[in-house]
C-alpha cells in the first residue's frame, strides 16, 4: 500500500494534475493542504482522497497509473473496512450496548481514504503537515510511514507526544461522531502531523463515516435520568458541512453542537 502510494506521488505533474480539485465534495480528487480556499497559511501536504464504499461505484474512477494501484488499494480498503466494523462492535460492547449498535446507528457507512504525501520541507519550523485537529468521522485507521515519524497526539493538557511507527502496526483514532454517540464517554483524539527537513514521508488514513442522513444521538442508556445529552441531535451531513466550512485548527467543531451552548 505504501509503495504504490509513493509511486503515484512520484508520477509526472501532468499525469497527476488531471485529478486535482479543491472542491471538498468531490469523491475522488488530488489536492493540497486542507482547505486551500480559506487558509492564510498552507500545510505542507499533498493528498489523494478516494471514496471506497461501495467499492464498485468508485473503483472505475480511481487512478489507473501506477498499473497495480487499483488492485492493491482496493484490497487494502476491503480489509480495513472489516477491521473497522470489528472495532465498532467492541466499542459498542464496552459501552454496555448491543454489539451491532454503533454499526446500525451510523447507517450504511461510507468509507474514504486520504493517501498523504509530505515532501521534504526546507523550513519545517514554519508549517505543519497538518495542524492540530480531531477527525470529523467515526473511526480513523492510520497506516504510518515505517521509516519516518510524523504523527503526534495531545495528552494531558498541552503536551504533544510522538507516535513512532511500529512494524506491522496500525494506529486507531476515534473521531468526533464516536464522542457524540457515546455521550462523551469516549473522546476524539487531538493530533497533528509534523514535517521533516531531510526526508519525504507517507501515511494512509482510512475513515469510516456515518451515512449523510444518519442522526447522531447517544443511546438512551448512556444519558442519565433527568439530564440532557451532552450534544444535540444532528445529521452527519450537517456536521460535515460545518467542519469543512472552518479552518482546521479552530475550536473543536463538536463544541458547536453542545446542548448547553447558546444558539
Proportion of helical residues? 10-25%
Q: Ends: how far apart?
A: 45 Å
| Overall 3D shape | globular
Tally the beta strands.
12
For the record, the CATH architecture stands as Sandwich
Strand coverage percent: 15-25%
* Structural domain tally: 1
Task: Walk me through what this model shows.
- The protein is α+β, with helices and mostly antiparallel strands and 263 residues long.
- It has one domain: Sandwich (Jelly Rolls).
- The chain is 24% helix and 23% strand.
- The protein has seven helices and twelve strands.
- It has helices at residues 2-9, 13-16, 55-58, 69-94, 101-105, 176-181, 236-244; strands at residues 28-32, 46-53, 110-118, 130-133, 139-144, 151-155, 159-162, 171-174, 191-193, 201-209, 215-216, 234-235.
- The protein has a six-stranded antiparallel beta sheet with strand order 1-2-3-10-5-8. It has a four-stranded antiparallel beta sheet with strand order 4-9-6-7, with no helix packed on it.
- The longest helix is centred in the N-terminal third of the chain and has 26 residues, at 69-94.
- The termini are far apart.
Secondary structure layout plus pairing:
Layout: H1 2-9, H2 13-16, E1 28-32, E2 46-53, H3 55-58, H4 69-94, H5 101-105, E3 110-118, E4 130-133, E5 139-144, E6 151-155, E7 159-162, E8 171-174, H6 176-181, E9 191-193, E10 201-209, E11 215-216, E12 234-235, H7 236-244
Antiparallel strand pairs: 1-2, 2-3, 3-10, 4-9, 5-8, 5-10, 6-7, 6-9, 11-12
Amino acid at each position: 500500500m505504501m509503495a504504490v502510494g509513493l509511486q503515484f506521488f512520484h508520477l509526472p505533474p501532468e499525469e497527476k494534475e488531471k485529478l486535482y480539485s479543491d472542491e471538498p465534495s468531490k469523491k475522488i480528487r488530488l489536492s493540497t493542504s486542507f482547505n486551500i480556499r480559506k487558509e492564510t497559511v498552507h500545510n505542507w501536504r499533498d493528498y489523494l482522497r478516494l471514496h471506497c464504499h461501495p467499492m464498485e461505484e468508485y473503483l472505475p474512477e480511481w487512478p489507473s497509473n501506477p498499473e497495480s494501484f487499483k488492485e492493491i488499494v482496493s484490497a487494502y480498503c476491503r480489509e480495513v473496512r472489516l477491521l473497522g466494523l470489528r472495532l465498532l462492535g467492541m466499542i459498542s460492547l464496552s459501552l454496555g450496548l448491543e454489539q451491532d449498535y454503533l454499526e446500525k446507528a451510523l447507517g450504511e457507512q461510507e468509507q474514504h481514504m486520504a493517501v498523504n504525501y509530505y515532501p521534504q520541507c526546507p523550513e519545517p519550523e514554519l508549517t505543519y503537515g497538518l495542524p492540530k485537529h480531531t477527525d470529523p468521522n467515526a473511526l480513523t485507521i492510520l497506516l504510518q510511514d515505517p521509516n519516518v515519524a510524523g504523527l503526534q497526539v495531545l495528552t494531558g493538557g498541552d503536551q504533544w507526544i510522538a507516535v513512532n511507527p511500529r512494524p506491522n502496526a496500525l494506529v486507531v483514532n476515534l473521531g468526533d461522531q464516536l464522542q457524540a454517540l457515546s455521550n462523551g464517554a469516549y473522546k476524539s483524539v487531538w493530533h497533528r502531523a509534523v514535517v521533516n527537513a531531510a526526508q519525504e514521508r507517507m501515511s494512509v488514513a482510512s475513515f469510516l463515516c456515518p451515512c449523510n442522513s444518519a442522526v447522531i444521538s447517544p443511546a438512551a442508556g448512556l444519558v442519565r435520568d433527568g439530564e440532557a445529552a451532552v450534544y444535540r441531535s444532528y445529521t452527519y451531513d450537517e456536521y460535515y458541512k460545518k467542519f469543512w466550512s472552518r479552518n482546521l485548527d479552530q475550536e473543536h467543531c463538536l463544541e458547536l453542537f453542545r446542548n448547553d451552548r447558546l444558539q
